[in-house]
Sequence to fold (536 residues):
Amino acid sequence: MNDTSPGPRRGRCLAALMSLMCFALAAPLIALDAAAGSAPLSPPAHPDNRACLRCHAMVTLAYRDGDTGKLVDLFIDPRGLAESVHGQLTCVKCHAQDYRYYPHPPTATSEQLACVGCHTQDPARSDYPFQAIAAQYAKSVHANSDDPQAQGFGCYSCHDPHGFRVSTVGKPLAEIVQDDNRVCLSCHEQVRDPLSDLHRWLPNREAHWMAVRCVECHTPPAVGADETQRVSHRILPAKESNLTCVNCHSGNQRLLGRLYAYRSREDLARDGLFAKAVFNEAYVVGLSRSPLIDALGLVVIGLTALGLMAHGVGRYRAHQRSRERQP
Amino acid sequence: MSALYLYPRWLRLWHWLSALLFLVLIVSGASMHYAGTPWLLSFKQAVPIHNAAGIALTLGWIGFVVGNLMTANGRHYRVQWRGLAGRLSAQARYYGYGIFHGAPHPFAVTAAMKFNVLQQLSYLGVMYLLMPLLILSGWAFLFAAYLPETLFGIGAVWIVAMTHLTVAYGLVLFLMVHVYIITTGETPLTNPRAMLTGWHRETEAPAHR
Fold:
């Protein structure tokens, strides 16, 4: 027997310690029984998330809502939360402080969560103008629809606060597109039904779905003060969405421009300023194509070449004539 | 026989370097713009070549501007407004008619002014209008991440792209006309030789032409 293995004496100590711990854990429950009805009775949980996740990390944690009869999922994926933009926050930073008590008192469960409470206009982050976003959202079909399914729609209907991640530069484009569209499709699943008539007008429908975000066509182009933003939060109803191919495919190619700008940021982040200047990988084939300018340019160049040749021939003949005249 | 030293060494160096860069940029630019055309460079080859040549052209242009500010060469780019219209029409008439009929050249090259008025105006337009536009739009392409998404309600990158494209076509036209017109000196090689040696030599005294 070596020194590190527990002896019988040490084993007894451990057993005593375990029973003490069991008692400590059970104590609140015993207390709960003793004073039933006068919640909250548990000591406030430590403000880190471990106490919350002890229950909420259980995949099966849910209850059936008495009014609607629907199952309400209370599971929070701890890894998704940790990797999300809110991963550094404690649960009670957003949720009511009273959630620290168990059972959760009614004062906690009746809370109204508002993202803009924390996400106010931050002058340092001009890329996230939350006031403008709120104004755009107010005009969105999600905010104005009569559909019963759109009732209670809010930021977190799309942006899961427990798993939301910002598309970071460097992430493959296809992945960004799929991640973004998954948000839309989590409600609008009928859109991708192969038998559905929706989007039937769209040529190469599947190719569009793989390569383009829903919001590229279902939001209006950014104008004026909204220009700092990549995509508007004003989701358009189907009828008002972009149905014009040339909006993206030629003319003022706003989608191509947006793609170029993204790839440009990607280059800068990866290669730095100087390498970027030479090995610019952002250039999108076709970005500079304009059928009108190309046709005009080539025609004018062709005519000029013909004109110059004719001029040259004329000069040569004049030169020959003048030599003939001179003895 | 007259001889004028009109093209100092720095100017000749800049000129021929620009000429080379123009050719490289046209070929590599066309390869990017018309990517997939068989007899052009591959897109992957063309991009770094075009970017590097564009950076060199920018440096060359800055050198040209600084050179004209610091040396006497800048005097050739000062427009003489008096009698401009008359000189313009005389020059245009010469190229369009007189040149075929043995008419004397309406402009005499002097140490004070080496360009005829059409030449001067086209060089001014190219060097101080088209080239800055080309260079700015080229750099805007490289650093599009710092552009706003739209300008005047139109995609900013698209404006940059169309500017670059239009100016590029304009400069291809300039190059063609320039290479041709430069052969209309006393002999076809009078002007190209001057840009090689620095010396503008004519067999007859300018006053007699």
Remarks:
- The first strand of chain A starts at residue 62 and ends at 64.
